[in-house]
Amino acid sequence: MREVEFDDIVKSIKNMIIHTAYNLPEDAMNALKKAYEEEESPVCKEVLEQILKNAQIARDEDRPLCQDTGLAVFFVKVGEEFKVKGGTLKDAINKGTELGYKEGYLRASTCDCFTRANLKDTVGYNLPAVIHFDLVEGSKLEIEYAAKGGGSENVSRATVLAPAQGKPGILKFVKEVVSNAGPNPCPPIIVGVGIGGTFEKAAISSKHALFREAGTRNADPELDGFEQEILEELNKLGIGAMGMGGTKTVLAVHIERQPCHIASLPVSVNVQCHSSRHSHITI
């Protein structure tokens, strides 16, 4: 059994959150640069240039990439031989999240869903974090983190299609979601698509798909081809950067799929804005 101190995990989470708030990851930066080079609209090309400049200023001056510093979302793989000494893993992640948002001067965005009262003085500063745990072999702890903003989350959707609708039905649904979203999620966006499982599993899969490096090819040849087909169709919508009518509405489409019930075809679309703030550490 491998033991890691509670406070060491807290510190790692805190540093992860602050770094991610200020530094756009290389995959997102490269995807935006590629979009800038390929964009055909002069107006959208200028918008993309401003987005890239903003990312560079944030990195150089240690400032948040966006005023919406999001809710903290984690996907955590816990080795069966890994143990936290001095507390629970969940508590360590939440404490690290609170310290990261406080010490990084990031906005506290969690509130009561009915009263809309901010929870920073009751539950905690930007708490609770959204944590998805997975128990795996080994003695390592792998943590994926993303700051998920409201603008992109608000336009995400899930449904359950009839099995007979198949791939054409999935493509139609994804196009409807992105078209209806328009400029609201601050495009160019990354689109995560979860297919199969159950209703909630499809939603979780679509969120996790956003963590894949932007533009990397799917290891499954069938899904890879489907991703490219969807990407092409979405960029035909002509929404463009920040809704200014260009050719690069979507930077990447990432699909994750699961087996599902014979009577259903769950599909979820999770949208991420151009400020795709995510990171990955192994302890």
How would you describe this protein?
It is a single chain. This protein is α/β, with parallel strands linked by helices. It folds into two domains: 103 residues; 126 residues, no CATH class. The protein is built from eight helices and ten strands. A four-stranded mixed β-sheet has the order 4-2-5-10. α1 packs across α4 and α2 runs antiparallel to α3. It is globular and about 55 Å long. 40% of the residues are buried. The mean pLDDT is 97.
Structural class: alpha/beta
Largest sheet: 4 strands, mixed
Q: Quaternary arrangement of the chains shown? A: single chain
Extract low-pLDDT stretches: none
Question: Shape, please?
Answer: globular
Q: Identify the strand order in the major beta sheet.
A: 4-2-5-10
Helix fraction by DSSP (H/I, runs of at least 4): 25-40%
- Percent of residues in β-strands: 15-25%
Order of helices and strands: EHHHEEHEEHEHEHHEEE
Number of domains: 2
Distance between the termini: 14 Å
DSSP helix count? 8
Kindly report the average pLDDT value.
Answer: 97
What's the layout of helices and strands?
Elements: E1 2-5, H1 6-22, H2 26-38, H3 42-61, E2 71-79, E3 82-85, H4 89-103, E4 130-136, E5 141-148, H5 150-153, E6 157-161, H6 166-181, E7 189-197, H7 199-209, H8 221-235, E8 250-260, E9 265-272, E10 278-282
